[in-house]
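input
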Amino acid sequence: ANPRTRRVAMEMLSKLSLQGGDSCTFFMLDAAFVRTFPGKSLPFFQEIRDDYTTDEPLVEVALDYADVVKGTHIETTLAVSHRWMQPDDPDPDGEQLKALKGFLNSPEGQKFERVWIDSACMPQDHPKGSRSAEDAVAFKRMLKEVNRLYLGTTVLILLDMSYVSRFWTQFESWLSMQFATPSGLKSAVGTRNERHHIVCIQNAAAQAESFTKLLVNQWANKTPDEAHAFLSKPDVTVTNQSDKEGQLPKIEALNATVQGAFGEIVRQLEDELAASEAAAKRAEVELAAWERENDAKAGEANRLKVAARQAARAVAAARMAKDEYAQAISAGLVPAMMKRGEVLAEGEKEDTSRTEGEEEETIHAPRPLEMETGVRKVVRRGMGDGSRPPPGAPPGGGWSYIDHDCCLAHWLCLQKEVYVAPDGQEYYVATVDLQCDLRCCC
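output
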């Protein structure tokens, strides 16, 4: 497939979201803030919001079930599952923050940009009665939808000896070991969809292998019905019984919820394809009418000819978005877990597909730029004309700079600069950031 078409298709899929106010906004911590936080334990949410105004570590992220089933945030967001050690202090000795920072600074954890942990990301009521009415409303709204975080992000489980007796921690660990499919939830453990990490702390650290195995064996393969039956037992304790009563019905409905989300995404992809095909047909009709009226073939620079080419590309991109989504599902993968580098993989092969009237494009091998940040470069021949050499250009002078363009999508940013080579061939250098968080704002 044409790399340009593939890029547009990936943008199209990434932008899909469910309609009808299904989104819930969560506060999250900038991972860089957590990695370098100097204190013994993280402050509560209100203190971070009100006192750390220079750092501004809190960011707002809207999460709907389209994001959950696509896995939009799996590669960038880490949700922490932990037990509160005391009713008014989750981490009195700092062991949880120590373990969290250790993970974030490890090779596995360096990719994460945001961290969600309840005490620092939801308004707390400590001391009792101190939470404002507005904060209380926000807390209840987020608590009601917190299952989205543990089903739609990567999860770090901080496992202590009492973790397995609590409702919330067991619910969270079960969610972290599942992934969404069109037929409902399935176990992610042992598959390419696996997205949980377990760090044993406190006394559990001495028998980390045993406690880890126990937790995985307990929850990896439970169906929603089995999880509901287990968590509803009275020996699964919870501080606020209303939390348990509010979440148990959600467990029973999860299969239907994710099935509905998948169905909506498929409908949107089909609608996008139908709309692009209709637009392409209109463009063809307008072009044909112009050619009849003028008794001549439109040139490549003709406005209607250009519009027809663009419409045809939009159809190809919409079809590819639909096909690649179907391929991910057929392969049993969360769509976002498909190797993101595939958007660039076509750059290593010659692209022989072209629209009639267009010059054949030669694809050169991708050049690594900052591999640890997911930024790579692709150089390919384009069309254009213009006063500086491009990055990584072959030796020798005579290069000229033409233009700059930029395209932003939910997790893909492409910045394009066009150059003319000494031999007259025109190139563009496209910097593709596969972990863009929209802060580049070109």
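quick obs: Residues 8-21, 339-387, 405-414, 432-442 have pLDDT under 50 and may be disordered.
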